[in-house]
Design brief:
By secondary structure, the chain is an alpha+beta fold. The chain is 34% helix and 16% strand. The N terminus and C terminus are likely disordered.
Length: 974
């Protein structure tokens, strides 16, 4: 049994296999497992890669070509003569170059350090990558990058620069795709146009080999780079911020420069190893002084011309926006929201900044520098105030013939205020608006001529806040009838307001102003009765107001002011060219008359500072207009020559901070004169026209100084001035008449029956559009509704006593003799008697008679005074005459009451019923009443608005023309 079991066991044991069979089995299974592992790993890798790139788009050849060739290119701005102002605002400097313009030396240097196998790989250099890994792990002294130029380009164009494993995978796949669609030349050129090289000597980040050569070595031509410089540039892209020899403001960085030199030596060594340079070239490059060849430090254009660069950018962006809209076949949508417009404008600005555009301005560098030499000299300004800040100014100079802006003062300190005060600020224009919205439209329509008569008398305006408002002149008085020339010379407010409101009309005035480029007129301004003297909702800009005045210098033809002459794209194509398109807004005759009136503003009017300080009257004629706002929050001077117009404004950033003292109030005139003197000295060739051209149709005529019409037999005051022949008056003088009247409280009235003859006057009187009696009624009706106002006498114009009477004397006889005057006293001044008294308390007193007795003889009437005129007699009696005086009050019915006292001697028996004795002359006994000094307040100290009262009698007034006009010219107060 045991043996049988042993036999069975022996039969069941399998035979032993040979070692070859066992080895083959192991190999077989290893192969199977290897295949499975590869498939698994491949699937895992494929899945990993798929997970990374699943959201990335599959970029077509067209898209790749488009994005690789798309470059942000630096734009530049230029002065009118082609000199560069600087590059448009960006922190980058990018300049494109074509492959054929890249020297082989530069290519060799770049490939030696970045991708020495560039021409052999298909986008990814696996051997190079392994070599870079080995160098990194072993910390070898010579280390090369693992990424090819194609990978670097793919990363810069399509990916962000974050160092992640995901990015590396995408980079490799993109590189392989780039190599399918782009040639090696295209890849190399794109790389050298896009890669950063650190900062240039002006502080800008330089992108691309061309910008690097210019920014770091000051070389425009890459062929001028030597081996040392080429190697230096080639080494920078690896770590441009670490190797940059200049910081963000262009200052030299010694530490970074030394690092860049170490990198340069590595590049030279790689070039030598790759046989791109010889040993002698290598040694020579090592000895070359790179530091001495660096470009000199220069300021950015936005540091040198910050205001100008921002203004160029702003105006050019507006043009780009218009061009974009035109290209889309749609005009600007005025109904578009502000947000939409702002977004579109910003897009246009970015397009301008990155599109390589060249913007050519109209700015004359010499003019601009001359203007800024004035604004940047602190000696020309009032010392800064802690409360008010820095005294600011703005100015702009425009070519009359074209509208080209030649220069500007945008402000005094860009670091304090970046707003351009000349183009962006809007302030109240004061009296500088008078020519634009009152005198020009009135002249052009024939409503007024320089010799035309305007009434400088008050007007009562409705005012919701105060009930009524009565505008004043800056000198706190009213002068009555004056010529238009005189009114403008002295910048009187009331004549301008009457032209604006009554003759021209507000709507027509603003329509006219808009044709002259004033765009800031608001709907509310059509209800602003004081708009012509600066009562606007917002105001005007210096640019637009100067532009409006330039149309006068351009003989009535308006050119919209402009600063951008042309814009050229990166390909050299002119995409925008300004075209001068003048519009004849008013006639040449109107322009000439307005110019001549503005000439006498300087010679005889408010612009005395300009007259005093201007140095070129003999070579360059000038005219102009002053202006100031309430409390001197702003002062202006608008002046022009036949060739250019210069507008100046002075004030503070906040209008509530007012200018103080005579110097500040004249500051606009002072600065205007300094700027003009300097510009004429620096650019005399701009001022070629030696006189304002006189058109046909300008004649000289003599007219009545009462009405501005043809003189009549009664006319005894005249004015001679220039006229548009079309508007020479044909009607005779109807502004005067002979009348017998009595004066009460400065107003002429028709006398009551029984009024004593010696108080009546029979003279030539003025028939004005609004009689003084009517004015008095309006004033008295308005006073109760006003919170505050001046006394009635304050509002009486200086010539009120010459007014034609239309109302009967309001005084009524009370049936009894008046109360007597009192306190008669005599004193002697310069040897002549002066008699004073206190007035009667009776309301019907018509006036006072002065009686005199010599050496105790009988009393004789010497003089009369109308009630309200004065309480002082000056009969001219010498002290040696032994005279005695008394004063009698006389009422409207002729009743007389003598004073209870006499002065100057022993009291004799008065003869109160003595009939009046006519004295030769005008009935006043040869005496003139002494004006009450309280009636006419002292003038203000406004240097641009002081009004000198026109001479009385038959004296001549300011010349109406500078071309030989004679006679009584200008304005005479009747």
């Amino acid at each position: 049994m045991v043996e049988e079991n042993k036999k069975k066991t022996a039969k069941q044991r399998p035979p032993r296999r040979s070692w070859l069979r066992r080895f083959g089995s192991v190999v077989k299974w290893m192969f199977i497992l290897g295949i499975l592992g590869i498939l698994f790993a491949g699937g895992a890798v494929a899945g990993y890669v798929t997970s990374i790139v699943k959201d990335d788009p599959v970029r077509t050849e067209e898209l790749i070509q488009q994005q690789v060739s798309q470059n942000a290119i630096t734009g530049f701005a230029y002065f009118s003569d082609g000199q560069p102002i600087g590059q448009l605002r960006t922190e980058e400097d990018r300049r494109l170059i074509e492959f054929n313009d890249i020297p082989q030396l530069v290519i060799d240097a770049v490939l030696a350090i970045e991708d020495n196998n560039f021409y052999n790989h298909k986008g990814v250099d696996f051997s190079g990558t392994l070599r870079a890994v080995k160098q990194k792990l072993l910390n070898e002294s010579v280390q090369t990058g693992g990424s090819t130029l194609t990978q670097q380009l793919a990363r810069r164009v399509f990916l962000n620069l974050d160092r992640t494993e995901d990015r590396k995978v995408k980079e490799i796949l993109l590189s392989l795709r780039l190599e399918r669609f782009l040639s090696k030349q295209e890849i190399l050129t794109a790389y050298l146009n896009k890669v950063p090289f650190g900062n240039g000597s002006n502080g800008y980040n330089v992108f691309g080999i061309k910008a690097a050569a210019k920014g770091i070595f000051g070389l425009d031509d890459l062929e001028k780079l030597n081996v040392a410089q080429a190697a230096y540039l080639a080494g920078l892209p690896q770590l441009p911020s670490k190797y940059s020899a200049f910081n963000g403001v262009g200052e030299f960085n010694e530490t970074a420069f030394n690092r860049a030199i170490d990198r340069q030596r590595l590049v030279l060594r790689r070039m030598l190893e790759e046989n791109k340079i010889t040993t002698s070239q290598y040694d020579e490059a090592l000895l070359f002084d790179i530091k001495s060849s660096l470009a000199p430090h220069t300021k950015k254009a936005y540091a040198t011309f910050p205001y100008l660069m921002l203004e160029t950018e702003r105006k050019a962006a507006e043009i780009m926006l218009t061009l974009n809209e035109d290209n889309k076949g749609a005009a600007s949508d005025t109904a578009a929201s502000t947000a939409d417009n702002t977004l579109l404008l910003e897009e246009a600005r970015q397009q301008l900044m990155t599109g390589g555009y060249r913007v050519y301005t109209t700015i004359d560098k010499k003019v601009y520098s001359a203007m800024h030499s004035i604004s940047e000299d602190s000696d020309n300004f009032t010392e800064d105030s802690k409360a008010r800040g820095k005294e600011q100014t703005a100015g702009i100079m425009i070519n009359n013939k074209t509208g080209a802006i030649l220069g500007m003062i945008e402000g005094r300190d860009f670091n304090i205020e970046q707003m351009n005060y000349a183009t962006q600020m809007v302030r109240q224009p004061g009296s500088t608006m008078k020519p634009i919205a009152a005198y020009l439209p009135a002249l052009d329509a024939g409503l007024i001529q320089p010799a035309g008569i305007l009434d400088d008398a008050p007007i009562v305006m409705k005012d919701g806040g105060k009930g009524f408002h009565i505008p004043k002149n800056a000198n706190n008085r009213y002068q009555g009838l004056v010529t238009a020339r005189y009114a403008l010379n002295k910048s009187l407010n009331l004549p301008a307001l009457k032209l604006f409101n009554d003759k021209v009309g507000i709507e027509n005035a603003w329509t006219f102003a808009k044709k002259l480029g004033i765009t800031t007129i608001q709907d509310d301004d059509y209800n602003a009765q004081t708009g012509v003297i600066g009562g606007l909702r917002y105001g005007v800009s210096v640019e637009e107001l100067t532009n409006a005045y330039s149309s006068i210098g351009n003989q009535g033809a308006f050119n919209d002011a402009y600063m951008i002459e042309k814009i050229v794209d990166s390909q050299g194509k002119i995409i925008y060219q300004h075209k001068v398109n003048p519009e004849q807004v008013f006639s040449e005759q109107t322009a000439y008359l307005m110019t001549d009136m503005l000439r006498t503003v300087i010679t005889d009017g408010t612009a005395s500072t300009v007259k005093k300080n201007y140095e070129h009257f003999k070579e360059v004629p000038i005219v102009g207009k002053t202006g100031s706002t309430q409390n001197y929050g702003d002062v202006w001077f608008m002046g022009y020559t036949p060739d250019v117009t210069l507008g100046m404004w002075v004030g503070y950033k906040e209008q509530i901070n007012t200018l103080q003292g005579d110097t500040q109030k004249r500051q606009a005139q002072t600065l205007w004169t300094k700027v003009m003197n300097t510009v004429i000295d620096k650019r005399p060739e701009l001022f070629v026209t030696k006189e304002f051209p006189k058109p046909e149709g300008i004649v000289k005529a003599t007219v009545s100084a009462y009405s501005g019409k043809k003189p009549s037999e009664l006319t005894d005051k005249f004015t001679t001035d220039l006229f548009n022949a079309e508007f020479v008056p044909k009607d005779s003088d109807d502004g005067i008449s002979k009348a017998k009247y009595i004066t009460f409280n400065g107003v002429n009235y028709l006398p009551l029956e029984g009024t004593p003859e010696d108080f009546l006057k029979e003279k030539i009187v003025v028939k004005r559009e609004k009689p003084i009696q009517d004015l008095v009624k309006e004033l008295l009706a308005a006073f109760p509704a006003m919170k505050e106002h001046e006394p009635l006498a304050y509002y009486m114009p200086a010539d009120a006593k010459t007014d034609f009477p239309t109302e009967v004397d309001p005084r009524v006889d009370d049936g009894s003799a008046p109360s007597a005057p009192g306190e008669v006293m005599v004193s002697y001044s310069t040897g002549k008697a002066v008699i004073t008294f206190t007035p009667s308390g009776s309301s019907d007193v018509v006036g006072y008679r002065l009686y005199r007795s010599l050496n105790g003889g009988s009393f004789q009437k010497q003089a009369v005074l109308s009630a309200g005129e004065s309480t002082v007699f000056k009969p001219g009696t010498p002290a040696s005459a032994n005279a005695t005086f008394y004063v009698a009050a006389v009422d409207v019915a002729g009743h007389e009451a003598a004073s209870g006292s006499v002065a100057g001697g022993t009291q004799p028996t008065p003869e109160p019923t003595l009939p009046p004795e006519e004295v030769p002359g005008d009935g006043t006994g040869g005496t003139e009443p002494t004006p009450d000094p309280g009636i006419i307040p002292e003038s203000s100290d406004d240097p641009g608005m002081i009004i000198i009262q026109p001479p009385g009698g038959n004296e001549a007034t300011p010349q109406g023309s500078g071309n030989g006009s004679g006679g009584n010219t200008g304005a005479t107060t009747p």
